[in-house]
Each structure stands twice: as C-alpha cells, then as structure tokens.
Amino acid sequence: MPSYLQTLPLHTITEVYGEAGLRDRFSREILRFREPDWRRLSTALALAGDLHRQDRRVREPVVNHLLRVTLRIMCHYEMDDADLLVAALMHDSVEDHPADLAGDGHADPAEAALGVLSAEFGPRVAELVRAVTNPVYDRGGDVHAQYRAHVVESLERHPAARVIKVSDFTDNGVGLIHTTGPKLRKLARKYRPLVPELKDLINRPDTPLKERIKQHITGQLDRADERFTAILQGHAVAARAS
C-alpha cells in the first residue's frame, strides 16, 4: 500500500484499495497505542472479521463499514479510547451474530453474546455495544419510530456511545449514494428525523468530544439532512408528476 494512505479520505481508500486498504490504514493507526491496547484492537478486528466474513452491505463487505466507523473515531474524532474503539469494531456483532458469539441454546442470545464480549474485552466494551444494539421491534407498529426512540433513549444514558452511533450514522448516510430505488427513500425516511436528535446529543457537555470536533460533526449532520431532504422531495415531485 502507498505511504500516503493515511492522508486519504476513508471512502477514497475504500473505492481505490477496498478492504485491504482499510485494514492497512487500521494497522498503521494502532501502532501509536500501548501494546496491550494494540493487541486488544487487533483481536477485536480479527473477531469482527470472522463473525461478519459472509456479510455484505450494498456492494461491499460489512467489515469495511466496521473499519470506517472505527477509523473515523480514531482519526477524525481524535479519540484514543481503546474500549470505545473495540466497541466500534464490534458494534454490529451482537445484533447480527449473537449465536456465533455465544453458541446456541440461550434463552436470551443477545445477553449471552454481550457476556462473551464482557469476558473477552471487559464490561465497559460490552455496555457500549449494548447501547448501540437495536432490540427486536414490534413489527405491528412503526419500526422506524421505535428505532429512533430506542436510539435517543439509549444515547441519553451513554454519552460515550454517542460517538460510535454518530460515526455509524455518518457512514450509513454516505452509503446512501450507492443505494437506489424504493430502499433509498425508505432509508431517508428512517434517518432524517434522527438528525436533530443526534445534533442535540453530540453537542451536550457530557459527550466526550472536543468542541471543534462537535462543530465538524454538526456540519456533517446538516449536510446529511440536506441530502435526506432532497431525496424525499425528489420522490414527492416524482409522485405528483405520475
């Protein structure tokens, strides 16, 4: 990989070098950590890669998303909290692969999976992952409204988890450019109402980010809101025209 890889935007690395490029960037960035934290981060990536090895989102492996979420926190949000970074790598694991983490036969697979993460990486990592893990929603109700209510309630109680969620949200928002058709409108309707809630949560005094980073994230959320609005307005115009 080129020596200037660390100067490239994360989505540029993805487009040009793919998963190998993101993994290389990650391996370079974690060299600044103490050896115990470096090893924990390497172990977390190996576990996440194994759990999600067959998972894809739109047009890429899920591990790319996990790496970008973590690298964004590390490089752009300037955070060296190893627990937070491990949780970022594992943030989809309990929701997507509880049985692969904890095995079959548990009355509550998600709780069992969180127990495995706690034993492997510590209770704080498990609690951070819990805070950004979606529960099973009532399919008879408005699933998107339930999702937003859960996110806000959970992040109210877990300031550090806000950092993972906003990086995840940012990555998902950028990913909309690769989505078309009805799914694009569905995702815009899901995410747009969450923008003001995230802006409020990120800018609270107890959110562990520097003020200039909060301002940067606020600007990103404003641009995401513009994108979601344009998608939904375009759909409304097309519907009237038809």
UniProtKB/TrEMBL annotation:
Q: Which Pfam families does the entry link to?
A: HD_4 (PF13328)
* Alphabetically ordered keywords of this record: Hydrolase
Q: Which domain of life is it from?
A: Bacteria
Give the lineage: Bacteria, Bacillati, Actinomycetota, Actinomycetes, Streptosporangiales
- SUPFAM superfamilies tied to this protein: HD-domain/PDEase-like
Could you tell me what this protein is called? (P)ppGpp synthase/HD superfamily hydrolase
From the Swiss-Prot or TrEMBL record, what is one GO molecular function term?
Answer: hydrolase activity
Organism (species): Actinomadura luteofluorescens
